[in-house]
Amino acid sequence: MIPQKKIFILLPDGVGLRNFAFTSFVEIGEQMGWEVVFWNHTPFDLAGMGFKELKLTGKPRPQTDLLKRAKIEVELNHFTQKFNDPVYQTYKFPATNKGFKARIKNTIVRFLTKTHKGPIGLQKLRNKLKVSERKGELYKECVEVLKNKKPDFIFCTNQRPVNAISPLTAAQDLGIPTASFIFSWDNLPKATMVAEADHYFVWSEFMKQELLNYYPHIKPGQVLITGSPQFEPHFDLSLRKSREEFFKEHGLKLSKKYICFSGDDITTSPDDPQYLEDVAETITQLNSGEHKLGIIFRRCPVDLSNRYDKVLEKHKDIIVPLAPLWEKAGETWNTILPTKEDLKLQINTILHCEAVVNLASSMVFDFAVLGKPCLYSNYEVTDKTQADWSPQKVYNFVHFRSMPTGEEIYWLNSKDEIQPKLEKTLKNPNDKAQKALEWFEKINQTPAEKASERIWVQLEQIMELKTDN
After folding, report:
1. Number of structural domains the chain divides into
2. What is the structure's pLDDT at 334?
3. Please, which residues have CB within 8 angstroms of residue 419's CB and are 6 or more apart in sequence?
4. Domain of 415: which CATH number?
5. Which of 185, 267, 424, 459 has the fewest beta carbons closer than 10 A?
6. For the segment 283-316, what is each residue's pLDDT rounded down to a tens digit?
7. Of 345, 347, 326, 348, which is closest to residue 337 (Cα–Cα)?
8. How do the residues of the chain divide into helix, strand and coil, expressed in percent and rounded to 5?
9. Is 168 in the same domain as 285?
10. How confident is the model at residue 469, as a pLDDT?
């Protein structure tokens, strides 16, 4: 009898829940003979959902976080120089200078940035991140757990968090193979590769080349193309509700067609309430003619602000807010965690809307998968929230260069363009939807619903190679 292989699915934060806990990922692995245990560093109770889990409780060292900050700075400076492209400087966030401790930390980060430049400096910082964590209690906790539980593989769901360094380093030090999933399509240009692993699972051939371009110390054989499980629920017919059922549940009118306005976080789109107002005013004008339209407003799950309240109240006859069903488990944005119920809400919102309007959101892909078009807001409002902000800052980001032609969406270049382009969308939705799907198939491996299976196949192959060696 072949002994069962044990894998730890490392959850350093909540963003991996949707991909690996709320899909068929675990079920597929168990069917293939794996014992799947979540190594859970989030407040989310996975045992209550019937999963095996081990809670990870320690914290990374404060020194490690400073090294991480310096690494990101040095990496973005290096990318700027290497690719002769100033866009990488726009990924930097100004550090707070409030308080004596913050100023001391910033001084240390600036010193590390100045003394660790280019590929050699980056290699030193990568080593120092591991050396720093080996001195901490979190690393010791990880070593003890790994020695006692003896997993065969550690799979990290997100390469960004600093608290993933200790578990992966401890595993590597003990000779346990490791892998990290690149969480999002926009991550690599932003210098978010914080945790290093033996293998990297990416969305597509496009992302593989991107990874090798930014991190030439990683070998092509370490990078495995699987696609992202986040789109699998879109193909799960059991999650879908009829139009009548969905509309009744949320007080929507069967006589209306709905446009989804998908909100952004306040950093990406500080003028989002004005964009929503512009769409609502346009739909009011359209409804005075032959149309019967409404708006379903889905806010960004981590935006709990009241910035939309005035618009929602003013246009309550048109806008129906359907808030994401995420759980607030802490005070910071990364402790607002997704739920399986929200998957149903999102999928049925897409299914029963005609199109989506937003600024630069990856919701374009969620809608494209279900054959629905997207309109991108691309103009500056009259009464700007931030004088130095422009939508072009967002659209200039590197990940939008993956767009094959620029014709994959409708660009709303002014408020006046909303009406004619909405009407085009309603008359011929398939045109842009099909082009957006071609963009999606460039950045994510097809068929999209088989990503979990491809991940498990690659994991099996890694283990076979390890056994042969």
Report:
1. 3
2. 60
3. 282, 285, 286
4. 3.40.50.2000
5. 267
6. 999 999 889 999 999 999 989 899 999 999 999 9
7. 326
8. 50, 15, 35
9. no
10. 61
